[in-house]
Known about the structure:
The mean pLDDT is 91. The strands form four sheets. The protein has a seven-stranded parallel beta sheet, sandwiched between helices. Strands 7-10 form a two-stranded parallel sheet. A two-stranded parallel sheet has the order 8-13. α9 (255-265) crosses α12. It has a domain at 2-184 and 224-248 and 289-304: NAD(P)-binding Rossmann-like Domain (Rossmann fold). Helix content is 40%, strand content 16%. The protein has twelve helices and 13 strands. By secondary structure, it is of the alpha/beta class.
Amino acid sequence: MSSRWSGRNVVVTGGLGFIGSNLAIRLVELGARVTIIDLPDSASAGSLSNVTSILSAARLLREDLSTPGDWASCIAEAQVVFHLAGQVSHSASMQQPVDDLRQNCGSLLNVLEAARRSTPAPKIVFTSTRQVYGRAESLPINETHPVRPPDINGIHKVAAEEYLRIYRQFHDVPSTTLQLTNTYGPRIDLRNPGRGVLNVFIARALRGEPLEIFGDGQQRRDILHVDDVVEALLLAADLDAPGPFLLGEARPTSLREFLDVLAELLPIEVRCRPFPADLQSIDIGDSHCDSTRFAALTGWSPKVTLREGLASTLQWARSQRS
């Protein structure tokens, strides 16, 4: 794979964030010429410390993709654009829907407009979410499942996938969409609890606080290490198929199993307690995905075990705390 990326001109939007920074670091290691674009507002952007190791090798632009800027020329000159920028909190999207629209749909449309002005247009690799399918009607969830987003963020992800389809059809802008699920690993956001559930568990464990789960904890999820997600993104860049493609595990992981492995690595207590009535009504129960279509085209499968992945995550987190 190294020779495939050597000298390639690549843009990673949202490259200071969790998955984006891991992707940018891997691309630099593979010899790509990497430009990272992320927001100038440090409260909204990812952490600059995530990419300290590659700042001498990569270009960094602190710009807002939802407004015109110098960033557009970087998109037009790129061979591949990994578009990971956007607002990811589902709860925040319900509280500030217009801002979610601007950060997710507005930013992507501007990137697509910059891409179509280039000949040839760069390949766009877009990260959507399994959330677009809502509560599972059957398991495992595959790409034929009815699309029923449960919140504003999910609606905007569906709209984004449709924007990509239109630009493929009418403007010859190639793209591939991956629909991601629960991801963890080094550089996970431990500051903002609204950006997932795994980061909350890990942050509480590092503080030595008891971990609580509702019910018996047997709800099953796809829990992927960021290295496996990065590998999928790299493969998607050269895939001549638009997707969307779901990423999942061959054997989904229960929340209790995740916490039990975490408890083996840290001296923490795990407690189960009954669901509060208001949360029981919206609990989605088991939710795991079938990645057969993507695996058949690329050979991708998750490689990092839960124990290995959590150990590397905790090692990274301790280095940041010190």
